[in-house]
Amino acid sequence: MSSNIFISTSSTDWNRAANWSLNQVPISNEDVYFSASAVSVDTNLDQHIIEDEYGTALNTINFDTTYSGKIGTNNTINTTVYLKIGSNNFNIGTPALTRGTGSQRLNIQAYNYGATFNIFSTATSAYDTNSTPCRIIGSGLNIDASGGITGVAIGPGETSSVSNLNMVQGAGNPTVVLGQGVTLSNANVTAGTVINNSSSLVADAIISGGGQLTHQGNGGYLVLVINSGSYVAYTGLGTISTLQLTGTLDLSAGIGAVTITHAYLYSGAKIIDPFGRLTFTNPISLVETKLSNVSLDFGINRNIQVS
After folding, report:
1. Smallest Cα–Cα separation from 221: which of 274, 258, 275?
2. Fewer CB atoms inside 10 A, N or C side of the chain?
3. Do residues 152 and 178 make contact, with C-beta atoms less than 8 angstroms apart?
């Protein structure tokens, strides 16, 4: 595999051969690098290097912290243009020898199914209003975030599917914002914050360590695990089919009824529901603990079932 580095000093055209260190536009199986540059790429963004009968994807696309140019355009809040390209791995914010602040606009659409985004860091704020520094869409995405601020299909009418979302402590606490049109299968959050605006059911979400989840959408969770030290603010709607709780579930903000079908509470579990938004289909189960070891605020005039 060969490396092809973006070396333009002024041209913003992806398709200009002289903009690349190999004097050719990137082709399949190459490793593409953006570093030590403030030159943006906003022309000829619709690239068809994808995994299908026409060829294979790029091996990697790498944006290190010294690249401060912008990828894609955002002419208005509702008009976002993405770099559309296939790559097996997108590496965002990989550190160079001299660490920079990163790009305020990385708009990327992964053409090939199942691409992995490794997000190490981004700029601390977005160039565009109502956006995030890193903004992605795609299908079957695998997202590993250890820093930065990333939005997935956050624009009006945008859709994406995420097979796996993993968030861990890295250079900073990662933040991932999921748009209304995102379908998320599995999430494992041990650091940072997920802001979930999705209208679709999440199959499996595990929040542990210092991880946090802010649920603002109308989709629910087939399984929601909130481990000790973790916090979930449930301001949106959607049924939780199975809740396993050792941390905190907070419904003090937001309006509308939320149903929990099966709730399993362990020692240290805390539910904050002062306005009575919760309804339990089945009695709460205390697992290897007693009532005095959990904290329950269900508001006033509630019926509690004990079996």
Report:
1. 258
2. C
3. yes
Residue 52 DSSP one-character state? B
Structural contact between residues 163 and 188, judged by C-beta atoms closer than 8 angstroms: no
Strand partners, 232: 213, 249
Length of the chain: 307
Judge whether residue 61 has pLDDT over 80: yes
- pLDDT tens-digit series, residues 167-219: 998 877 899 999 999 999 999 999 999 999 999 999 999 999 989 999 999 99
> What residues form DSSP beta bridges with 186?
164, 204
Q: Provide mean pLDDT across the span 77-84.
A: 80
Cα gap 118→46, rounded to integer Å: 22
Residue 18, SS3?
A: helix
Task: Provide the CA 250 distance to its chain's centre, in angstroms.
Answer: 21
Residues 6+ apart with CB under 8 A from 203: 184, 185, 186, 222, 223
How far, in Å, CA of 32 to CA of 25, rounded? 10
Question: 257, exposed or middle or buried, with CB in 10 Å at 0-12, 13-18, 19+?
Answer: exposed
**Tokens coding 98:** 């001299």
Rg for the chain, CA atoms, rounded: 22
Cβ(232)–Cβ(251) below 8 Å? no
Whole-angstrom Cα distance, residue 294 to residue 270? Answer: 6
Q: What are phi and psi of 299, to 5 degrees?
A: 80, -160
Handedness of CA 14, 17, 21, 26 (dihedral sign): positive
pLDDT in tens, 157-179: 999 999 999 999 887 789 999 99
* 297 beta partners: 272
Distance CA 23, CA 20 (A): 5
Cβ contact 163:186 at 8 Å = yes
